[in-house]
Inverse folding.
């Protein structure tokens, strides 16, 4: 999949993205807002393991966010299982130098539409750490609705914090 957007392109991950992933992902300010499975420091080996897990995998649910010809972040969704099989959790990250430009919002809108049109989904949701109002704003600008606060639901960097639950639905 490749979506040419105004501020960025959303496309499949490629092996050539390895160097740029390390460059943009190896940043504590990026890591602090993501789950611990996203490592810090972020090494070349981490990028190789990530690309091993996503390049050529079907169905396509994980994508690079590209600007200026290089991968500057990622976005993807995980289709849930069992009774939640029509729901997916979506997540995204962006290199710090690209924050505040509307890139994450544009990518989120495009991938949300792709997920709804390509899979049998009726709900897509995201969880933002309460200390990350910028991510909550991205979700709101992309049309996601705040559904609730999950109090003291995660521990990141030694602090137990709340998460904010956002979702969008389609009939």
């Amino acid at each position: 999949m490749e979506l040419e957007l105004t501020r960025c392109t959303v496309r499949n991950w490629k092996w050539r993205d390895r160097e740029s992933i390390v460059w943009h992902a190896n940043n504590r300010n990026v890591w602090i807002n993501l789950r611990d499975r996203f490592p810090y420091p972020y090494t070349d080996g981490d990028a190789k393991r990530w690309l091993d897990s996503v390049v050529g995998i079907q169905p396509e649910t994980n994508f690079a966010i590209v600007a200026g010809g290089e991968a500057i972040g990622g976005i993807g969704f995980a289709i849930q299982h069992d009774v939640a099989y029509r729901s997916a959790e979506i997540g995204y990250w962006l290199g710090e130098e690209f924050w505040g430009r509307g890139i994450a919002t544009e990518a989120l809108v495009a991938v949300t539409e792709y997920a709804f049109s390509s899979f049998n989904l009726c709900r897509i949701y995201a969880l933002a750490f309460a200390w990350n109002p910028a991510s909550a704003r991205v979700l709101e600008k992309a049309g996601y609705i705040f559904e609730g606060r999950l109090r003291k639901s995660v521990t990141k960097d030694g602090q137990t914090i709340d998460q904010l639950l956002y979702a969008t639905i389609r009939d």
Notes: The first helix runs from residue 18 to 25. The helical segments are 18-25, 28-31, 44-54, 103-118, 133-141. The domain at 2-122 is CATH 3.40.630.30 (Aminopeptidase).
